[in-house]
Every structure is written in C-alpha cells, then in structure tokens.
Write a structure and sequence with these properties.
By secondary structure, the chain is of the alpha+beta class. It contains two helices and three strands; from the N terminus they run ααβββ.
C-alpha cells in the first residue's frame, strides 16, 4: 500500500526510475519535473496528495497536501 511506503521512505535522492519501481507511474508524465500520487481519498472528495519534485531526474523535495477537487500542480497554493 502506498501510504505505508510514504511514511517509511523519504524518496529524496531517488531517480525517476527508482520511484517508478517503488510507486508505479501513477498517471505521471515521465518528462515532468513534478509528479503526484494520491495517498488517500474520503467519500466526500477530500484527497491527500504526495508531490515529488525532481531536479535533473532526481527527487529534490517531497511534500504532502490535502485538497478538494482538482489537483493544482503549483505547490505554492
């Protein structure tokens, strides 16, 4: 289950290939610099999303947001 992996692993320093092996593609476009994975979704639409940001195909940051509706790829909002 993806939730268990997220809590035990930081992903920082991992390559895109390594992330794909751990989590799968998750509908992410390989060349994108930000990938996201849905960790949880409630029955009323509240989603917990993990974002992985890449620099030179290596994870440089990980952050988790809770959102309603569509996922905004801008981490500042």
């Amino acid at each position: 289950m993806i939730k268990k992996i997220v809590h035990t692993q930081s992903f920082l320093g991992m390559s895109k290939v390594e992330v794909l092996k751990e989590l799968g593609d998750g509908f992410n476009f390989y060349p994108d610099n930000i990938w996201y994975y849905e960790l949880n979704k409630t029955w009323w639409g509240l989603k917990t999303i993990m974002f992985l940001e890449f620099e030179n195909n290596i994870v440089s940051s990980k952050y988790i947001k809770t959102v309603f509706g569509n996922i905004n790829m801008d981490k500042r909002e």
